[in-house]
Amino acid sequence: MYVIGEKINGMFKKVNQAIKERNSAFIKELALQQIEAGSDALDVNVGPESVNPLQDMKWLITTIREVTNAPLAIDTTKPEIMEEGLKIAGENSFINSTHADNEKLDIYVPMAKKYNAKLIALTISKSGVPQDTAGKMELVTNIIQKCIEYEYDISNLYIDPVILPVNVAQQNATAVLEVIQQIKLVSEPPPKTLLGLSNVSQGTKYRSLIDRTYAVLALASGLDSAILNPLDRELMDAIITAELCLGKQLYCDSFLEAYRKK
Amino acid sequence: MYVIGEKINGMFKKVNQAIKERNSAFIKELALQQIEAGSDALDVNVGPESVNPLQDMKWLITTIREVTNAPLAIDTTKPEIMEEGLKIAGENSFINSTHADNEKLDIYVPMAKKYNAKLIALTISKSGVPQDTAGKMELVTNIIQKCIEYEYDISNLYIDPVILPVNVAQQNATAVLEVIQQIKLVSEPPPKTLLGLSNVSQGTKYRSLIDRTYAVLALASGLDSAILNPLDRELMDAIITAELCLGKQLYCDSFLEAYRKK
Predict the structure, then answer these.
(1) Rounded to the nearest 5°, which phi and psi values hold at B11?
(2) What is the pTM of this model?
(3) Considering only alpha carbons, which residue of chain B is nearest residue A169?
(4) CATH code at A2-230
(5) Residue range B170-196, pLDDT digits in tens
(6) Across residues A103-113, what is the average pLDDT?
(7) Closest-CA distance of chain B to residue A223, Å
(8) Is B154 on the interface with A (CB under 8 A)?
(9) What are the structural domain ranges in chain A?
């Protein structure tokens, strides 16, 4: 599975503080820790308290780029910050994210194409977050149609069927697993699938247990990618072991260590 | 998932000793521990070193029946011991197990019918253990045909597609997941599916991690039942959480505790 580390996000208190204080050592260390723990890419989000989000985003990206060339997922709702972020983060970045409404897709699909970026698209529209399979798939279809219209390479599209906390929307959790399977059937090549995993356990008593169990269920359904906490060792162990059992990695006695050294 | 506790098996040194010494307190305690940990039924196996397996089996069943009426899975390769076991264990017992050859099925299917027992049938024949999906499904078909021939209720049939250790037969692990899904399509009502879970991690370095990860993958594929170690708390936690995320149990904050008190 393609792992996008979620930790560089201003919603975390220490990260918010590091951004305010321009503590580049802290950010660099957090970037490297996530890579060492098995991240393929890193999410970058200035957080809700940022007073100058454009400057903060630029500083974060520049700081991270001093220690790693890993792809970055530029995580903002503002198109102008997205575009500036893409300019300095380089190719193979992720746009994180667009909703499924045409007015959003008409901004972000061309932007993804222009900057050769991957595009994360959520099954959310102005009408809300559909919680059933049919409602989610309707938005999936709209997203794919827009990508075809703009001749955007569907294999660079990452559709996120939006997992909600299992304590408030339990049936949504099973619908998401169905959508992960169905997405693979709607186009050739199919889009990738992605989850913002940690959301599944928001507000629950056993967060890590729910995260790692749901990750394995989603992998069994064919999930390609997730934004998650790579520093949760038990979560990463579960993911690595699931991929082993699904035949996506060759067995060796020290398969956990081998994966992390990859 | 229907859990059959695996611990009362003479292959475990302490159990073997308890059988030899007729230490009924040890066996009763082990039975109750497994029930409290979430087992629905208990496997009973005298082990390979038993000198008088018929007497040992009778003693084990009688001893367990002093503390619980939970269904028992009579685990022996000898038809005469199986039949004596079924007589004293009572209805809803499991025959554990038959192979997929006609000469075995012609013994065990009628026996299962006569004693109103559930039947565990392995996808193993005289030719060996097929490791690919097609080979396993061929044996599944033969098992089901024999059950139809004897008018045995297919919903009491538990087919075990035989998981092999992932360190020696990695592709078998993915084939088993496919077979679990396909079995549900071959008859109406479909047979149940069952795994002897612990075998997947035999000889590996991270046994419990592999067991619990594979259990979640199998649950995502629709697994109904497993023979496993219910005293592995992390394994049971993973199973309970997977069932929660699959919508088979209602969420409450203390869902782990609620399941165990069921």
Answers:
(1) -70, -20
(2) 0.95
(3) B251
(4) 3.20.20.20
(5) 999 999 999 999 999 999 999 999 999
(6) 98
(7) 12
(8) no
(9) 2-230
